[in-house]
Amino acid sequence: MKSLSERYVPLVVSVGQVVIFPYYILWLKEASLTFTLFTWFFASFSFSAAMGYRLFQAGKKPANSYIPYIYLGVGCVYILVGNIRSSFEVLPYMALLFQVILGFLQGYHHAWHIEQNAYRLHAINHYLLVGVIMVGLSFVKIISPIIFITTFGAILFICGIGLIFMKKEDRAVSN
User: Fold this and answer.
1) Residues 38 and 29: beta-carbon distance below 8 Å
2) d(CA 62, CA 142)
3) Which terminus has fewer CB within 10 Å in the chain: N or C?
4) Which positions of the chain have pLDDT values less than 50?
5) What is the dihedral of CA 96, 97, 98, 100, to 10 degrees?
6) What local confidence, expressed as pLDDT, does residue 166 receive?
7) Helices (H) and strands (E) in the chain, counts
């Protein structure tokens, strides 16, 4: 079972993030009142992603155990985004916080993912799957991108919890 999770969960996460990101950008555009604020949000995302990437690079060995929590964190951000019912006064501040958290977690995940044995296979499948999924989603009539964002957040949350339980089972079997 461990090889299946190592093989498919990182692919699901990376493909899902690329597929969901356009919907997230639509939400972020609504959350930011001006183009300048929108660009500042992405600057904060980029700086935070660089910090997450660097943090992984600084401590490679124990970092493998944090990956389920990275999935839980990204899932929680997307679920929270999908469930925000807030006024516009607070929304930009919440969006900035989400950008920083999401950037850090995605940078960390990317740094971890490229170190994995299956990464080369994932890179090829990633482009193919993203293209097919995006074409498929273009035919889906949906009122709000929030539905996609929340659904993907729930999928990531489930992946994180599943990996935590699999790690506990692996530790119990090895003892």
Assistant:
1) yes
2) 42
3) C
4) 1
5) 90
6) 81
7) 7, 0
